[in-house]
Design brief:
Distance between the termini of chain A: 51 Å
Number of helices of chain A: 16
CATH architecture of the largest domain in chain A: 2-Layer Sandwich
Helix content of chain A: 25-40%
Oligomer: homodimer
């Protein structure tokens, strides 16, 4: 990360940084500036570790300066400038690059003092989360956090370099745009000059990048802040950063190749990792079928066996439960969905261990009523919690269907489709974690393809866009969309509506079970875009009011185009081996959307409100 | 600008771009995709110029496809994909890189149609400003605009490369911050989750970059959007982009060297210009004295001669008017300021020409009551519009003082200090323009230094920060600031207050008479920062409420630091040889702050207002 072009780091305050002096510099007269990391007194001499961004250098303050030091006692985090001679250390420190030398200080001056920090500025700090956020400027001094921001910068740099080499152009799109709430809420900005009117902050530069394609810019990118006014779940931020890209005259295959290249290039430039293998591809249906979610962690196997399912695969509802139905076990008979995983080499789990897992799936976050297990004993026999309904032969058949080997433990969940599928997915990930299958240092990429274009919204009995309204259907599904009425006449049978089978020309990039990027080939024909707006329940007037500029642009020769956006914060946090994106943002907000350091948001003056032609309406 | 790494530009839609085929490609079978620029029919064959971002290629559609062409008539801006054979042209076009070849089309397909654009998509468009802004996506297709955005990207890239090589780190600062209106108005964002409270959009990342220095990041940069809710003068935008930088352990000299290096590197990388000479430096006083403004265009001389002035230079009011006073010419006798310029080789201007110039200075934008002239005839004699007050000897003395040569025309303005100084500066620039002294292709940099730290605000009889409240005084003026009470007891004599003489440790970079960057060494001591807030009339409570986090940070070992911000839009427009920054912004706003393409700002739903706990209050 560090570019040690030392000459460039010289300034009026220093001849060198605290990270660069070596034994080759011995006897040189130098000047350093930095922070006091530690002070150690030994009789009449004092050792100080002086820190700056680039490293730590040991200072030796001898007897002759001791009086001065007593007059001006130093403390941790004081800012010092010292002049002295580089000398060989008597006891070398092999742990730091400057460990062979120390500075015999000839003179020093205190550039600034420090009161005692509210927590220790060290890797293992004693500061709690709230305190560290309030004093973020001190937290940012910790090596841990600094490393994260350096990694973030190097990801930024690597992405830009790759995109530049591939002829992408960074084009800035506006931040004060029009509010077109669609899915997430917009942050809005009252306009003083246009009383009663509001700008919105962009949730993404989506329509602008499409316009740039219409304008012929061919390849666009931006590393750009986006804004969503959502209730913040843990690890969401109201402002977040995207690597936002768009290309013209491309099909899905072009995008997959280009951005698989980008991520590999980032791995290489940032982590030195050669990710040589082609990134795997999986359809959304297979992901849901085999892993229970649309961003499978494929660092480990443990695929789901669908014993019974209402989930539609290849256009049909399959897995109707031949293996388990009719044995008199009501829980399975009455369930919409019954799913199993075979946990490797866990057949000897104790009653206590299994009870603990059962409690785990019963927690409200998972929400199951219970869990059935089948132990595939090493000796080839089977033992199950539902022995009384299923004989050995049936257990064997189920085990075989679940790809269980002797020694595995089969866990089975039953219930409604969506919740059960999510629960088995959670259980799989939890066990993967516990069993050490999810290795931090293993990076495993996956493309998930062929998402449904629409999702069914029960409350309004209509279709909503799964990705966004600009995503194109698969080429051979376009006519299905054009030729059919989006109206759902029989809500109970929405799955039979032709729209339920339309696949999107969309793709997500998944890294270690996290969606790090997603995009699509876009609609570029006015007629199809209008049909899409209609399908989403938007009137012609509303569509024109919100997206008239885009519909207009499509009339003047819009090229086929598509793109992708990567969640920059998340990508950095995974590459940095952390669970939390906050650790990779210099000044993050807390879960109430507050910056506790600034104390923002805050009230504003009556005068400001008046100028903006608004007033408060707090209930 | 273009990176012709052709292999990388291939896609499922094209084997090559419209800019790359040469005679070496003759006989190859290729596929192109792009826009129809022109169609020329010659009997049964048709020539089409196909355009994409990379260039233009001529297509030849022969007789055999003519029927197809008649069935599917093409039009301008249609999007085509063609397959064909690269062939040698019979009449070559030396003006374009692909001019040696054409494509014998074997098949084509229309990817999208276009209705007739509302203006011609060409360099000399017939579209007016409003129309082009409404259809910005078409305007952006014009080569002229595309060149500007390409230049912008290359400036972006050059700046980043230079800063990266010098160990600066791009660190993103937040957009949803706290409103601390100081000078310009903030745009604010109502917080839904914190009812009655507001975020503000940053006018600059000023305090954040200072905190990053306190955190030890040593060298920071960002190319970042900033926001100011000001009444828009021509060529101002509510959102604009800065190259924002900060360094620790530096003095002014370090910053000047570093960023003079950056600009020179941009000149070199973007324009191929070697700007070898050291950038000149001028004090603010000298700039005001000799050029009448703080961003002198030094591409030409024509310095101002101060015949009489109330302007304080070197701490004293000088030029008290010995040369002109007491001659009975009331206009000069009663004026606060009398200033002259010698216009080279214009002594033979006619009455009409001089009247026209007099009218020019009488326009309300300049606001003078009249203009006096002295013709320094080639024969050594003088002729003046105020002959009756000043004899030949006096005219000669004035001419000598104004550095006029035989053949020059001296123009003299008189009036109140501020207006007259601005007027002579405007007149100097106007004449420089008319006489061809301000050459577009000549780039002339200048550092302006030693600005006053404070300006006097008459309405409140108090001091305001000339730059911003974080700018440090010159080191030897710190004690003047600490030791004196900022209170101005006698408003009429504010110039005698010690604060009037405090110089800021600040610097502006000027390019061809435009301020392209400005910055300062910052205050880094809590005590001095508090004194500054007091000097600006802020109570202790207000200072803590607004900037408590910064004052707090200064207590934990803040290093000496300073920085600079460049106006990215302006820098690009000057390098692009344009007067208008709007030409260098992909989606600019008009002078009412509106995006006419989007029709933003606009009204929002009652539901949105309610969720945000605000209501309209339009008078």
């Amino acid at each position: 990360m560090l570019l040690l072009k030392n000459e460039k780091l010289r300034s009026m305050y220093r001849t060198h940084t605290c990270g660069e002096l070596r034994s080759t510099n011995i006897n040189q007269e130098i000047t350093l500036a930095g922070w006091v990391q530690t002070i150690r007194k030994f009789g009449s001499i004092t050792f100080i570790d002086l820190r700056d961004r680039y490293g730590i250098t040991q200072l030796l303050i001898g007897e002759e300066l001791n009086a001065l030091l007593n007059e001006n006692p130093l403390g941790r985090e004081f800012v010092l400038q010292v002049k002295g001679i580089v000398s060989e250390r008597s006891s070398k420190n092999a742990n730091i690059p400057t460990g062979d030398i120390e500075i015999k200080v000839k003179s020093f001056s205190v550039l600034n003092k420090s009161i005692t920090p509210p927590f220790t500025v060290q890797d293992d700090t004693d500061g709690g989360d709230d305190l560290r956020m309030k004093f973020r400027y001190l937290d940012l001094r910790r090596n841990e956090v600094k490393k994260n921001l350096e990694l973030r910068y190097s990801v930024n740099r690597a992405a830009r370099n790759y995109l530049h080499e591939n002829n992408f152009m960074d084009i800035e799109t506006p931040f004060l745009i029009k509010s077109t709430p669609e899915g997430a809420r917009d942050f809005v900005v009252p306009s003083r000059m246009n009383a009663g009117q509001f700008y919105a902050l962009p949730q993404s530069p989506q329509t602008f990048k499409q316009l740039l394609m219409v304008s012929g810019y061919d390849r666009y990118y931006q590393i750009v802040k986006c804004f969503r006014d959502e209730d913040l779940r843990a690890d969401r931020q109201p402002e977040f950063t995207q690597i936002d890209c768009e290309m013209s005259f491309v099909e899905q295959e072009d995008i997959l190749n280009m951005f698989e290249g980008m991520i590999k290039s980032i791995f290489k430039q940032v982590k030195g990792i050669d990710y040589a293998e082609k990134v795997g591809r999986m359809t959304w249906e297979d992901a849901m079928w085999n892993y229970g979610n649309d961003k499978p962690d494929i660092r480990f196997d443990m695929k789901i066996a669908n014993l019974k399912s209402a989930f539609k695969k290849d256009g049909e509802i399959i897995a109707t439960g031949e293996l388990i139905n009719g044995a008199g076990f009501g829980v399975f008979d009455n369930a919409e969905t019954v799913v199993a995983i075979a946990v490797p080499n866990c057949s000897e789990y104790t009653r206590k261990q299994i009870d603990e897992l059962t409690d785990w799936v019963k927690r409200p976050q998972v929400g199951m009523n219970g869990m059935v297990n089948i132990k595939c004993n090493v000796d080839g026999s089977f033992k199950s919690s539902v022995d009384k309904f299923y004989d050995e032969e049936k257990l064997k058949a189920i085990a075989s269907f679940a790809n269980a080997k002797a020694g595995d433990l089969i866990l089975i969940l039953a219930g409604t489709e969506e919740r059960t599928r999510k629960a088995i997915s959670d259980l799989r990930l939890e066990l993967g974690q516990r069993l050490g299958f999810r290795k931090k240092d293993e990076l495993k990429l996956l493309w998930v393809l062929d998402f449904p274009l629409f999702e069914y919204a029960e409350e309004d009995n209509r279709w909503v866009a799964r990705h966004h309204p600009f995503t194109a259907p698969k080429p051979d599904h376009i006519s299905v969309m054009i030729d059919n009425d989006p109206l759902i006449e029989n809500a109970a049978e929405y799955l039979k509506h032709p729209y339920a089978n339309i696949k999107a020309n969309a793709y997500d990039m998944v890294l270690n079970g996290n969606e790090i990027g997603g995009g699509s080939i876009r609609i570029f024909q006015r007629e199809l875009q209008e049909k899409m707006f209609t399908a989403l329940g938007m009137s012609k007037e509303e569509a024109l009011h919100k997206f008239g500029f885009l519909l207009g642009a499509f009339e003047y020769g819009a090229p086929p185009h598509g793109g992708i956006a990567f969640g920059f914060d998340r990508l950095c946090s995974i590459l940095g081996g952390s669970e939390s994106i906050r650790d990779f943002i210099a000044f993050p907000k807390n879960n109430s959307g507050r910056d506790v350091m600034l104390d923002a948001p805050s009230t504003i003056d009556e005068k400001q409100l008046k100028e903006l032609s608004i007033q408060l309406n707090v209930q």
